[in-house]
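Example for tutorial group B:
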C-alpha cells in the first residue's frame, strides 16, 4: 500500500487554484458550468479518475469533457465507469467534496481522508481514457485534466475529439478486450464498423430509403456522422447539415436536438433542405441525443421525440421476439421520466410494463437493467436499449424451429450490435430507427400516428436558489418549498388532461417547469401560470419577472 504523491500533487494543484466564489456540484451529467471557471475542477477530476481506476483494480475509467446541449460558453466533465455506464452515485458526492476544497492544503487533506475512507489501494495501477467535444474551452480544460493525471501518474489514453457515446463505447471495449464479453474493437473505427456492418445486414434487400437529413448541431457528431455516411453509402443516403465546428458561437445555436425539443420547430438552417414528407433528425452538441421530425404536405412541422422513438423501437423488438418464438423467455419493458408525454405513457402502458424514474440517464439505465430487454428514452431524445446478458445468451443459443424464427433471431442479434448499450447514442439510435422504418415501410407520418402527443410546454425559471426545490415520486411532485405542490395541484385540476411538475435542473442553474394539456393554448397557459407561482414563491426579483409568466 503506497502513499499519495503529495508533493507532486501540491506543485500541480497550485497551478489550478479553485476560484473562491464558486461552488461546484457533480449533477445530472457531471460538473457543468461556464467553461472558463472549470480549470480547478478538471485538475481534481483527473486525480479522482485515477483513484476510481485504482479502486476498481486498474480498470479503465472514462473522462468526457463536454457540456452537451448547453450553450457554447459552458463546458463540463463527467466520469464513465468500466462498463461504459455513468459514475457510481456514491462517488458523485466525493467528486463534489473534492472539487470544493478551498485551497491546495484543503484539497490534499480531503484527498487523504477520502483515500483512507474509501480504502483505495494506491499501489494498484490507474488507467483512464479521455476525450472532449469541439467547444473552444476544451483544449485548456483537457490540459488541466492531464495535469491531474500527471500528478497521480495515471496511465492516460487521449481519445481526442469525439462524441460522448464513442467515449463510453471505448471504455467498455477496452475493459472487455479479450474476454467473452468483448464489446468491440477499442477505436472510433471499430465503433463505426461494428454498428454499420450490423446495420447493412439489417437493411439488406429493403428498398433504398430517401435521403435522411442530419442536423449535427455544429458539434462533434458531425465528424462521426460523416464517417457513417461514407461507410454506409447506398445502404443509407445521408445529407449532413450544421457541420461547422470551428466558427465561434454556432454550436447548438438555433439548431440541434435541444433546440428542436424545446422550441418545437424546425431549425431555420434546415428550411432550405427539408421537403414535405422527407424525414430529418437533429443531434445535440456531443451526439448523445436524437430528435426526428418531418414536414407534412402543408409544410407543418411534426416532432418525433424520445417518447416516439421508444414506442417505435419497443414495438419492433416485441414483434421480433414473438416471431422468434421467445415471448415466454424475453420480456420487454420501458423506462421513462416525468417528461414523457402523457400520450406516450398511455400508449405504452396499455402494451408493456412501464417504469417512471427521475431525470438522468443513470437512473433510466439502472431501471432498464431489470428487464430482459429494457428500452429507455428520455423525451429529450436521450436513450438506448439494454439486452440483459441472459437475453443475449438466449439469442445466441436458441434453436429456431422455422425459417421465420431463424430470420427474427438473426435480426435481433444484429440489432444488439447496432445499439450502443453503454449510453444514449444519437447516431446508433438513428440507425436503429432507420432499421425499423425500413422494415415497417413507415414514413414519418406513419410513425407519428402510433399515438398522439398531448400539447406540452417546457419553461425555465431563474430563481435565487434552486436547491430549495426538493421532489418525490420520480420528480413528479414537490415536497419543498412547502405548500407549492398544493397550489400546482389546484391549478392543474382546472385543465382538461392537465399535468404539470416542477424540478431543479441538474445541468443548469434553473428550475424547470413542464406542463401538458389537451389543447396547445392550455398547455402553454398552464406552464406559464406554474412558472409564475414558482417565480413569486422564491423571492426572486419582481422587476426581473418574465412577462409571459402569468
Ligand atoms: C443530461 C443528462 C440527461 C438529462 C439532461 C437534462 O443530458 O444526461 O439525462 O435529461 O442532462 O437534465 P436536467 O434537466 O437535470 O438539466 P445532456 O445531453 O445535457 O448530457
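The residue assignment follows.
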Amino acid at each position: 500500500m503506497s502513499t499519495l504523491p503529495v508533493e507532486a500533487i501540491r506543485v500541480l494543484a497550485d497551478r489550478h487554484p479553485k476560484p473562491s466564489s464558486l461552488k461546484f456540484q457533480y449533477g445530472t451529467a457531471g460538473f457543468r458550468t461556464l467553461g472558463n471557471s472549470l480549470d480547478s475542477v478538471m485538475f481534481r477530476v483527473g486525480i479522482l479518475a485515477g483513484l476510481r481506476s485504482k479502486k476498481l483494480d486498474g480498470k479503465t475509467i472514462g473522462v468526457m469533457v463536454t457540456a452537451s446541449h448547453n450553450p457554447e460558453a459552458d463546458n463540463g466533465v463527467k466520469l464513465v465507469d468500466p462498463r461504459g455506464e455513468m459514475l457510481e452515485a456514491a462517488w458523485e458526492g466525493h467528486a463534489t467534496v473534492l472539487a470544493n476544497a478551498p485551497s491546495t492544503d484543503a484539497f490534499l487533506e480531503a484527498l487523504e481522508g477520502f483515500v483512507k475512507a474509501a480504502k483505495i489501494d494506491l499501489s494498484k495501477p490507474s488507467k483512464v481514457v479521455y476525450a472532449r467535444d469541439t467547444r473552444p474551452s476544451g483544449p485548456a480544460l483537457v490540459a488541466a485534466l492531464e495535469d491531474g493525471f500527471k500528478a497521480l501518474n495515471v496511465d492516460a489514453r487521449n481519445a481526442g475529439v469525439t462524441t460522448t457515446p464513442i467515449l463510453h463505447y471505448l471504455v467498455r471495449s477496452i475493459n472487455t478486450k479479450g474476454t467473452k464479453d468483448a464489446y468491440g474493437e477499442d477505436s472510433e473505427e471499430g465503433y463505426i464498423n461494428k454498428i454499420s456492418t450490423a446495420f447493412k445486414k439489417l437493411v439488406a434487400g429493403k428498398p433504398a430509403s430517401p435521403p435522411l437529413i442530419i442536423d449535427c448541431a455544429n458539434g462533434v457528431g458531425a465528424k462521426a456522422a460523416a464517417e457513417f455516411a461514407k461507410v454506409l453509402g447506398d445502404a443509407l443516403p445521408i445529407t449532413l447539415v450544421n457541420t461547422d465546428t470551428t466558427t465561434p458561437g454556432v454550436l447548438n445555436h438555433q439548431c440541434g436536438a435541444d433546440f428542436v425539443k424545446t422550441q418545437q420547430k424546425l431549425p431555420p438552417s434546415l428550411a432550405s433542405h427539408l421537403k414535405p414528407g422527407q424525414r430529418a433528425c437533429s443531434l445535440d452538441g456531443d451526439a448523445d441525443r436524437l430528435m426526428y421530425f418531418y414536414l407534412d404536405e402543408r409544410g407543418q412541422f411534426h416532432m418525433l421525440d424520445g417518447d416516439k422513438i421508444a414506442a417505435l423501437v419497443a414495438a419492433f423488438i416485441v414483434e421480433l421476439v414473438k416471431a422468434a418464438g421467445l415471448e415466454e423467455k424475453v420480456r420487454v419493458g420501458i423506462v421513462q421520466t416525468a417528461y414523457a408525454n402523457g400520450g406516450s405513457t398511455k400508449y405504452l402502458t396499455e402494451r408493456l410494463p412501464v417504469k417512471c424514474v427521475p431525470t438522468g440517464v443513470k437512473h433510466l439505465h439502472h431501471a432498464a437493467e431489470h428487464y430482459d430487454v429494457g428500452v429507455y428514452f428520455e423525451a429529450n431524445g436521450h436513450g438506448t436499449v439494454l439486452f440483459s446478458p441472459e437475453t443475449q445468451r438466449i439469442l445466441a443459443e436458441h434453436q429456431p424451429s422455422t425459417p421465420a424464427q431463424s430470420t427474427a433471431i438473426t435480426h435481433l442479434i444484429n440489432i444488439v450490435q447496432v445499439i450502443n448499450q453503454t449510453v444514449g447514442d444519437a447516431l446508433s439510435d438513428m440507425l436503429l430507427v432507420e432499421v425499423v422504418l425500413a422494415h415497417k415501410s413507415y414514413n414519418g407520418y406513419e410513425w407519428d400516428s402510433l399515438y398522439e402527443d398531448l400539447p406540452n410546454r417546457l419553461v425555465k425559471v431563474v430563481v435565487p436558489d434552486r436547491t430549495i426545490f426538493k421532489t418525490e415520486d420520480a420528480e413528479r411532485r414537490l415536497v419543498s418549498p412547502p405548500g407549492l405542490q398544493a397550489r400546482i395541484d389546484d391549478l392543474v385540476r382546472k385543465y382538461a388532461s392537465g399535468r404539470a411538475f416542477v424540478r431543479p435542473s441538474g445541468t443548469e442553474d434553473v428550475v424547470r417547469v413542464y406542463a401538458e394539456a389537451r389543447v396547445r393554448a392550455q398547455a402553454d397557459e398552464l406552464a406559464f401560470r406554474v412558472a409564475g407561482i414558482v417565480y413569486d414563491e422564491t423571492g426572486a426579483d419582481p422587476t426581473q419577472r418574465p412577462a409571459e409568466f402569468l
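The two ends are 62 Å apart (CA to CA). Compare this with the pattern of hydrophobic and polar residues in the output above.
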